[in-house]
User: Which sequence fits this backbone?
């Protein structure tokens, strides 16, 4: 197949599936809280709706940074799609992409001049300090399999069985990372409702729709990496079932836990990262 | 048509042209990656800038000035 | 083991005498991302931070003055270029130099601000960065002493010894202090209170990108297999 067609197809699939999964998550959360909840395609509809809404750019914003940062978010997750489903490249690149995602989160907040955005920006600095150690899970995968290449990791799992049994603590760490990227999650301090919408507060209208597209792709990609790296070699139906299951699990957790205070959120994440890294290394040396 | 709309139309047409060009011809891999990294986000952004609704001129100044209290 | 295990496809090298820059997909991606951000910073205006005033219903706008803007933008661009250099260098000593430069420039970016809290935290961060420069260069020295080379393209073929492991731990400590990530991030987060979002971006960007890069370097030095 033509490479561009492959990339475009994967980006569109990532966007659509990610949006529907976000909608599903809201639906499940609503049902757990005994509300009817919005339709499953609500997130998708919101994304499209924002594109035709009236938009204005705040006078206080740092132009052209304020707009360019949204394009950066989209570009890095398109890069993630290329590294992931299209070429099955290096996991280390995902690390870089995730770090860039934290930077975009940080600066989308501060570029508008809004106090809510600023608060979210400072929180993003804190949470980066906790989420990057969690992303060290990639190193554990490397120590276990001896490769950073996604294709080779899938081959490894073909021989030795899914990695989720081999390094369960690493899978737990990655799950915490996925959880902290979900809306309404206990770790979503950068988007906590106490600071309105966090870094997205001043990105309304089309820019919000644009951010939502990128976030849907990001959600799909995080789930894709989890399923590929820890379970490996799934068919498209398998991926879909896995993504729905993880989204449902995340929704269950989000519906039943409050958003943690920033300090607590960081401490929980850092402790989990510490337990995960140390425990995995002990497990690797023992077996 | 104001300046923003004109620029967005130009950017949109350029980015769609590049994407279609890469779709039709089989280019070297890294050029396709570069095109998709730059022009997919740019096409979405410029499409958004074209499709977004603009308020009345006199209202818009207020919205830009007092963005944080909503409207 | 070779470099492609970590960074994906090997694209090429740029030899500058005995300093060799090398590109894998991973290095190239980070290099390009840092450069894009640096260009954005160079052309961007700063935001004016809106804060609620105490006692009235009015807002207060905090802006970046013109002289301050110029010097901070210059330092931010230097920081961006140093970060971009640290992404592609194939030489451990070069890397430590770039990291040290990032540390100095980061203090410079916030030192121009006239706010006591910010200056305080910049001072504390500066002390940590200074202390961290000893393990940083010490680590590079240990690696040189134990392998006889500083080039990552050579080190990748040399089996790991205990002294190399010790050197790389020192190197990591140095980078952690110099970039102000956990456990030192508390001093750095306060620095982000100032207005001037593009310049704050480069402080954050440089520390995260250098951390990502140091992980690649540590895995190159310490070969688990």
Assistant:
């Amino acid at each position: 197949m033509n490479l561009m067609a492959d990339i475009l197809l994967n980006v569109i699939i990532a966007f659509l599936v990610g949006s529907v999964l976000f909608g599903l998550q809201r639906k499940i959360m609503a049902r757990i809280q005994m509300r009817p909840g919005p339709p499953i395609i609500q997130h998708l509809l919101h994304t499209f709706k924002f594109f035709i809404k009236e938009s204005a750019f705040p006078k206080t914003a740092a132009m052209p940074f304020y707009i360019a940062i949204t394009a950066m978010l989209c570009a890095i997750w398109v890069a993630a799609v290329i590294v992931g489903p299209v070429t099955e490249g290096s996991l280390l690149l995902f690390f870089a992409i995730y770090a860039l995602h934290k930077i975009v989160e940080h600066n989308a907040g501060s570029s508008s001049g809004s106090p809510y955005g600023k608060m979210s920006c400072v929180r993003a600095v804190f949470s980066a300090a906790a989420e990057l150690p969690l992303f060290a899970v990639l190193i554990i995968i490397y120590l276990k399999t001896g490769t950073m290449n996604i294709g080779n990791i899938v081959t490894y799992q073909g021989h030795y069985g899914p990695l989720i049994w081999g390094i369960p603590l690493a899978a737990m760490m990655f799950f915490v990372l996925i959880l902290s990227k979900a809306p309404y999650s206990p770790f979503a301090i950068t988007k906590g409702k106490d600071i309105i919408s966090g870094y997205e507060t001043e990105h309304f209208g089309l820019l919000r729709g644009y951010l939502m597209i990128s976030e849907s792709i990001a959600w799909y990609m995080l789930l894709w990496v989890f399923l590929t790296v820890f379970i490996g070699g799934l068919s498209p139906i398998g991926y879909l079932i896995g993504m729905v299951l993880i989204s449902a699990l995340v929704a269950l957790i989000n519906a039943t836990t409050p958003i943690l205070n920033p300090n607590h959120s960081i401490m929980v994440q850092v402790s989990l990262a510490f337990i995960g890294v140390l425990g995995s290394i002990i497990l690797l040396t023992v077996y | 048509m104001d300046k923003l709309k004109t620029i967005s139309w130009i950017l949109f047409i350029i980015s769609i042209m590049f994407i279609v060009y890469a779709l039709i011809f089989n280019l070297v891999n890294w050029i396709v990656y570069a095109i998709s990294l730059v022009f997919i986000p740019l096409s979405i952004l410029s499409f958004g800038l074209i499709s977004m609704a603009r308020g009345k001129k006199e209202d818009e100044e207020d919205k830009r000035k007092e963005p944080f209290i909503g409207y | 083991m070779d470099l492609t295990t970590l960074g994906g496809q090997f694209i090429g090298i740029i030899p500058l005498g005995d300093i060799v820059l090398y590109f894998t997909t991973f290095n190239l991606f980070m290099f390009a991302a840092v450069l894009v951000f640096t260009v954005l910073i160079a052309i961007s205006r700063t935001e004016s931070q809106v804060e609620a005033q105490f006692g009235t219903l009015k807002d207060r706008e905090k802006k970046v003055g013109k002289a301050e803007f110029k010097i901070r933008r210059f330092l931010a661009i230097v920081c961006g270029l140093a970060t971009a250099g640290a992404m592609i260098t194939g030489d451990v000593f070069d890397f430590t130099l770039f990291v040290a430069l990032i540390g100095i420039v980061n203090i410079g970016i916030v030192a121009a601000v006239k706010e006591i809290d910010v200056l305080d935290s910049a001072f504390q961060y500066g002390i940590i960065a200074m202390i961290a420069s000893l393990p940083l260069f010490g680590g590079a020295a240990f690696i040189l002493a134990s392998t006889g080379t500083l080039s990552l393209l050579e080190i990748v073929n040399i089996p790991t010894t205990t002294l190399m492991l010790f050197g790389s731990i020192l190197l990591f400590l140095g980078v952690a202090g110099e970039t102000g990530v956990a456990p030192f991030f508390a001093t750095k987060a306060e620095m982000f209170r100032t207005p001037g979002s593009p310049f704050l971006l480069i402080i954050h960007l440089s520390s995260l990108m250098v951390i990502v890069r140091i992980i690649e370097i540590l895995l190159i030095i310490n070969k688990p297999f």
